[in-house]
Amino acid sequence: MSKGMFISLEGPDGAGKSSVLEALIPILETKGQAFITTREPGGVAVAEKIRDVILDPKHTEIDEKTELLLYIASRRQHLVERIVPALNRGELVLVDRFIDSSVAYQGFGRGLKVADIDWLNNFATDGLKPDLTLYFDIDVEEGLARIAKSKDRGADRLDRESVEWHKRVREGYLSILEKEPNRMKRIDASQPLEKVISDTVAVLAEHVESLR
Fold it and tell me: Strand ranges (DSSP E) for the chain?
């Protein structure tokens, strides 16, 4: 059985990657592509409980390292329970956030050592990286303004961080983009959603044979 393909979607808060992922579902279905979509933190029961702890706005006492370790624990359970089995079945796996989020948010945002985060990511994933990462880029102010206007989403614990903190997170993503241009592909998320979706499909078609 052939190994599947692993694709992650990343971006600052308010970039709209979750909306794009939702829009991709019917497109993939029409292509007859076997796939799953999932998210971090979350995706399986244990990881979803960890997500609730991490993102609850009331949990202001969470330490930076505790936050990172919670994400890593969630990632490990999600990986072994959902992602790896799907890849072993030869399916396309699309996940909303993965290892790069920890580097951007806890490394650049919180100021933790990126080398430590890389080690923990490698430990939790057994060295597994996405085959392709779609990075949805948007100015911080615009992304946060979108969140503020959204009726479907309340601000979580991370949304409420300072603009300066969110700018550091974006800088983290841009740093990864510069280091790994073959894996990470930038998509302009400031465009209308329809254009972002079409740009995403175009990038996917370059890497996923069934979408050509």
Answer: 5-10, 35-39, 92-96, 132-137, 184-188
Binding residues, as ranges, are 11-18
Which residues are annotated as part of the binding site for ATP?
11-18
pLDDT digits (tens, 9 = 90+) for 116-156: 999 999 999 999 999 999 999 999 999 999 888 876 665 67
Going from N- to C-terminal start, the domains of the chain cover: 3-209
The overall pTM is greater than 0.85: yes
Residues 6 or more apart in contact with residue 84 via CB below 8 angstroms: 128
Task: For residue 105, give the nearest of 11, 9, 7, 8 by alpha carbon.
Answer: 11
Q: Which residues pair with 95 in a beta bridge?
A: 8, 38
Provide the CATH number for the domain formed by 3-209 in this structure: 3.40.50.300
